[in-house]
Amino acid sequence: xxxxxxxxxxxxxxxxxxxxxxxxxxxxEKVLVDSAGTAAYHVGNLxxxxxxxxAAKYGLDITNQRARKFVATDxxxxxxxxxxxxxxxxxxxxxAKNKKDEDKVKLILNEISEDNHSVxxxxxxxxxxxxxxxxxxxxxxxxxxxxx
Length: 148
Ligand code: 4NP
Hints:
Elements lengths: L1 E7 L5 H12 L5 E7 L11 H9 L16 H4 L2 E4 L2 H8 L5 H5 L1 E3 L19 H21 L1
Parallel strand pairs: 1-2, 1-3, 3-4
Helix pairs in contact: 1-6, 2-6
The chain binds 4-nitrophenyl phosphate.
The site of 4-nitrophenyl phosphate has 11 residues, from loops.
């Protein structure tokens, strides 16, 4: 079983979408997908309504998800840890204990091209931001799924 963790700040907008999108592209018997946030503001909450809506528009139900915080023990549990942006990436690495932990962490958009782009935080914007995030994550997750 390969285990993939998607990480953003609040675990209510970007990483729940990444979790739902990748999950739909893999065999659930071979790949486990989860998500977490580096901040605890929204722990226990459903994904943001706008993420739920854009996922539903593309046929995905992400309402089974509840936000949780990223913890140091996630390094042992997961094989691949994808950060949505540079700030998430840096905050995850602060909890790494060794090179093995560090090597598990990647910026998700580097799967598309290795130029360190971030998935923009859509929280304070409108619905178009969520559509934009969905498209980027769909492209990245297609590549991730093809390699798993
Ligand atoms: P996410 O978006 O990191 O994609 O889940 C955010 C959600 C909440 C906040 C910021 C970003 N917040 O400041 O509460």
